[in-house]
Amino acid sequence: MPTMLRALLGLALMAMAPLALADNSEGSLKFGDHVVHFSALPTDFLSEEIATQYAIERSPNRGMLNISVNKDLGGGATEAVSARITGEASNLSGQNIPIEIREIPGSYVSYVGLFDIVPPDTYTFTISVFPEDATVPLTLRFNKNFAGQ
Taking the model in full, what pTM does it have? Predict the structure, then answer.
């Protein structure tokens, strides 16, 4: 693809922000001066110590979202920011699963959402993040394949 066409396509895609799509189950997406970090995993991947500390049931039939939001302060510096986060997942059968997302207490601002899964299945997540200092929600979509045992 010619460089100019790639640049125009990139500008067109950036104009669609603040919706970002991700095709993996963990990563970071930048929305202006905010960066949303996210991951999805079965809760049986957590150690017993971590699960107990944060009151999370360990199970191959339980999924967990982990989300944090940082603000870019410039010069490579960032700070964690509080946000209101809502989300839902849908499986390949089209079932929509609302996810209640709560803040994890501690020194770092982080959020967790728990939901039931029936592996093997692929779930599509739609997450809306409302940082305390933002004027519009930041929306991301990503997929996670829960393979099962």
Answer: 0.80
